[in-house]
Design goal:
Elements (H helix, E strand, L loop, with lengths): L6 H10 L3 H18 L11 E3 L10 E3 H17 L4 H17 L8 E2 L1 E3 L11 E2 H17 L4 H11 L3 H5 L14 E3 L3 E2 L11 H8 L18 E4 L2 E4 L10 H5 L12 H18 L15 E2 L6 E2 L13 H5 L6 H11 L5 H4 E2 L2 E2 L3 E2 L4 E2 L2 E3 H15 L2 H6 L3 H10 L7
Antiparallel strand pairs: 1-16, 2-4, 3-5, 5-6, 6-7, 8-9, 10-11, 12-13, 14-15
Helix pairs in contact: 2-3, 2-14, 3-4, 3-5, 3-14, 4-6, 5-6, 8-16
Length: 417
């Protein structure tokens, strides 16, 4: 690690920050630095993960398509905050979108979940992923709106137009009456056996698919996925027993505060899911030492590998993802900022704070601290903080005709924007 960004300097940076705005700016800038540091110079693809504590330890070569989507949104945030110039943000965005148009493997417009950062070739026998493609598209469309009237906007539209959502809905025609999207496809086995049929991070995928100008799926698909409620500690939420990230990802792009579809208040639901997640940790402080001060049960690294932790006994071992908790700042800002201030005073801060901010996850019971940060977690926190501060992503996304068309068809009313 370079001396100029030593652990002592990193923690001192936080100690010198006094206002909430300054603290959030430091945290967001750390997240942003991940996307500025990790693109491959030739492809623009973003590493799925990177070491948070020692740049000499970086030896990763796998990119995540979803992390690329978050990068496409991160660059405009960096421009707004003065961390990079308009020209630099534009050039980085063009490099990514040009590579996707000219060299990236795609199947009916969908992309592999994980690829080689240097070539874009598939790795780990990963699937052509519908939801990860949607996160990439969300970032591309946001960038296109931010850089309106430029080649970036043209490329974003071109990539979105070629996605055949009907193909993913019907399993290539084998299920013509299907009303739920498939999770993906592999060349070895064809379409996966799993579908987006229950509440999760799926909302952004369905809205993009319904709003597609070229291959839209029927509006009734929005009503076809199930919305099971779960209660705990006085809080009830659709998907309340799911990892925290599923309640955040679609909200990072779409502002659901002022609109409802007749099925649910999705923004209010995420508020309740956040409170449920936090309450679960508080109620199990005696079982897990980490929960005495921290919370944030989500998909993250853990002592036994990457897991989808959730507020259910048997689906947690005391591991927390602080950045996932903090990304709920768009739902419960006062609570999140108060917890953040408390965490910044914790005696373990020097161990869990690195060059890109908080460790992806840690478990004090197991004396384990994750050495890496994960791109999608960094991106989610960056976008959440920016939406809390300025509403930047919401402002541009809610003005995109495709998003408006998808929301209206799904039954959302006019939010009077």
């Amino acid at each position: 690690m370079a001396a100029k960004d030593s652990p002592g300097r990193q923690v001192a940076e936080l100690s010198d920050a006094t206002s909430d705005e300054n603290i959030l700016n430091i945290l967001a800038h750390r997240c942003f630095q991940y996307f500025r540091a990790q693109p491959n110079p030739n492809t623009g693809l973003i590493l799925d993960r990177s070491s948070n504590f020692d740049q000499r330890a970086d030896g990763y070569s796998v990119a995540s398509i979803a992390a690329v989507g978050f990068a496409l949104a991160a660059f405009p945030v960096g421009v707004k905050r003065g961390w990079i110039s308009w020209e630099e943000g534009y050039a980085r965005t063009m490099r990514i979108l040009t590579f996707f148009r000219e060299r990236m493997y795609e199947n009916r417009g969908f992309y592999y979940h994980f690829v080689d950062v240097r070539t874009g070739e598939r790795v780990w026998k990963s699937e052509v992923s519908s939801v990860d493609t949607a996160l990439f598209l969300a970032g591309a469309l946001f960038a296109g709106a931010f850089y309106a009237g430029t080649e970036v906007a043209e490329l974003a539209e071109e990539l979105y137009h070629r996605v055949d959502f009907q193909w993913m809905l019907t399993d290539g025609g084998a299920r013509p009456h299907s009303r739920t999207l498939n999770m993906g496809w592999t060349p070895e086995h064809g379409f996966l056996g799993s579908r987006w049929a229950h509440y999760s991070e799926l909302m952004i995928l369905y809205l993009l698919a319904i709003g597609s100008p070229t291959h839209p799926i029927p509006a009734e698909t929005w009503r076809s996925w199930e919305r099971p409620e779960r209660s705990y500690g006085g809080h009830t939420a659709i998907g309340g027993d799911l990892p925290l990230f599923v309640h955040q990802y679609s909200h990072l792009w779409v502002d659901f505060k002022k609109v409802q579809d007749g099925h649910a208040d999705y923004y209010g639901n995420s508020v309740q899911a956040t409170l449920l997640n936090r309450r679960f940790a508080r109620d199990h402080q005696g079982r897990f030492m980490t929960f005495r001060e921290f919370w944030g049960l989500s998909a993250s690294d853990g002592p036994s590998g990457y897991r989808a932790y959730a507020p259910v006994l048997g689906r947690t071992d005391g591991t927390v993802c602080p950045s996932a908790a903090l990304a709920s700042i768009i739902f419960t800002p006062g609570l999140i900022i108060a917890d953040l201030r408390s965490w910044l005073k914790h005696k373990q801060l020097h161990r869990i704070w690195g060059r890109y901010g908080f460790a992806d996850a840690f478990n004090l019971d197991a004396n384990w601290i994750g050495t890496d940060v994960v791109g999608i977690t960094q991106g989610a926190l960056l976008l959440a903080i920016e939406n809390h501060r300025s509403g930047l992503v919401w402002e541009y996304m809610m003005g995109i005709p495709h998003i408006q068309r998808g929301m209206l068809a799904a039954g959302f009313g006019d939010p009077d924007r």
